[in-house]
Amino acid sequence: MKGLALSVIGTDTDVGKTFVTGLLGALAVADGFDVGMVKPVSSSAVPFPECISTDEDNLAIHLESKDATYLMRAVGIPESRRHEVNPYALAGDYSPRLAAELAEVDIDYDEVVHHIQHVVPNYDITFIEGAGGITTPLIGDYTFSDLMKDIAYPALVVADGRLGSINRAVLTCAYAKQHNIDVKGIIVNDTTLVDPFLLKTNIADMERYTGVPVLGVLPPYKGPDQQKVLLGWGRSFLDTERIWTAIWGDSLKEH
User: Which residues are catalytic?
Assistant: First the structure.
């Protein structure tokens, strides 16, 4: 079984895309899948603890994307494959486009697309995580919506559950549909522990106005940084069989 992929889109920055992507990846590994991760372009990178590290292409790694590191650890990807997961790590709390311009880093959009398409066939399931929201500037005039459209994999939207989340979810799903991105489901990552009544009604209205199912709701994780504990916690809130079926349907059976 090889070649399934999922694009993970956020309704905004700081809604927990990386946490949700890492958790889904870890659960997929536990379900018996060989999992790949791609965070193609990441800003907010920090100096790497050991700048002498090299990846499999013998390229020196001087900046570390903490998001990429989290994804790698979630599914057991070794440091030698960092470039596969994160080809571009850029400093600064900016959009990837602005971070690249400030760092005078030239990023070829077509190369980013080809990189993802090269990685996907190597794994049963590959998770591709965007940055910020769906319209976050990526390279030049391209945004992450262009990337998700061009790689053409099914998508999952990560939303928060607080006041205003209906608007953000509806706009994100509508924009995705307008750009031919096939959103299969929504995961609500309730990072602020919203009032239960508000959360319940927000979830119902997300489904009503988007026509997209909410496939899981995660409360804030307050457990230890231990993979076994996190997986057990995740299983209590996410039904992976339902999620995989909603995303890939018969394709999963064919693989």
Answer: 39
